[in-house]
Amino acid sequence: MTFQDLNISPIILKALAKENYKTPTPIQAQAIPAVLAGRDLLGCAQTGTGKTAAFSVPMIQLLNEQPPKPGMGRRIRALVLSPTRELALQISDNVKAYSQFTKLRSTAIVGGVSQKTQERALQQGADILIATPGRLIDLINQKHVDLQHVEILVLDEADRMLDMGFIHDVKRIIAKMPSKKQTLFFSATMPSEITQLVKTLLHNPVKVEITPVSSTAERIVQSVYLLETGSKQKQLNELLKDPSIASALVFTRTKRGADRVARGLNKVNITAQAIHGDKSQTSRQNALNNFKSGETRVLVATDIAARGIDIDELSHVINFNLPNIPETYVHRIGRTGRAGLSGTAISFCEVDEVPLLRDIEKLIGKSIPEVKDHAYPMSGSLRAAKVDQSPKSGSAKPGQAKSAAVRPAKPKADTTRKPKTDKARKPKSDAARDSSTNSPRKPKAEAVNNPYLEMARKLKSEAALNPKDGQARKRKSDGFKKGSKTGRSS
Ligand code: AMP
Question: Fewer Cβ atoms within 10 Å of its own Cβ: the N or the C terminal residue of the chain?
């Protein structure tokens, strides 16, 4: 199938060709005709599936076919709501790219940067607004934004909005729009509050469900270092002496931890920058741009700050701290090994984190091979007490892990430990919302319709079927091509 087959107008086809998009991804093939036909859409898909174009392309086409009436001025006719600034800016880049040959104008409204520039952009007029809820509410209250002419509403990552405490803001924003509009709704999971919102918001929606390309995680080579307490920074510095680690995204549990790790790397002349919610939007964007351009080798991030970031050719993900929620591990490692490339995920585990490691192994149904030959091993007695008693298999060389060993982990885990979840906090600001370190989503809610769980389940069943086969498999064709103009790839 080609984009022409989807009845996309030549002016947008030209832009897609310029972006080097040749074949629609599955979500695009399903969503574009439905949206062009004016239907509401309920999409269950993650970043990386091509969902931005799935909603933006038909949205742009519909708006372009009906230019504003002469003399009426430019009015906001489409609103895209996104939970994070990074995601909003990426959507904005994509919308600009896809609409570059039309007369439509779009602008992004996000927190963390000066409001003045955004006010000016709004005064000049925009057909499409891409926004995070917090700043949008501020601008609505100050009468800089009028949503009375919105014809198309896109809610992206609705479950994440719920997690981040945005859901009431979202409802208040929706109340400012006409009730008659086309709504495109995306959510990876369907907790009850989201189901409720879907019921009130969508009319007879077309449902599209896309699970991430499972081969992504299959191709990722995983390993773990069991470390003496307090030696993670030294181990990281040591690891990064290896020049084959071209770019690494390092995950820490806390914002301060991210700053500390970046400082520690800078001290040994490794270029690194931290990205988290306490940083201004400008410095986050700079850090991201420097990392994407290769100027900085290491980006240190908290989970929430990293969400929505799409980086080309990321070779390594390093878990400086293991996440409290095992699903978060699958999210993190899915950042590498994209676009048909292989990827490496390395985790550091101190004795306190062994139960977290066990939970992760239980979820993915594999023992993560341990790198044994390194400078800071966990002390023998701790190992004996905590590690050697529990099932583990496989080993890997330092720095260069072997493919994951795939003996299914014993279902018996440390039942005394409950995964910690961040308590839902009262929403304050975008930055405050970003202070959470792990997804506060409860594992229970994840059980329903979660593509990552789906991926984990798939891995688990494959591990059971092919206990010896830990080799990274070649990716099946998924219709994605690297090298898009927006600097993002699958
Ligand atoms: P998304 O899931 O929308 O964040 O898209 C993930 C990546 O795939 C982005 O870098 C897009 O530019 C890219 N992409 C989306 N659709 C296509 C397509 N049909 N062909 C090639 N690349 C695409």
Answer: N
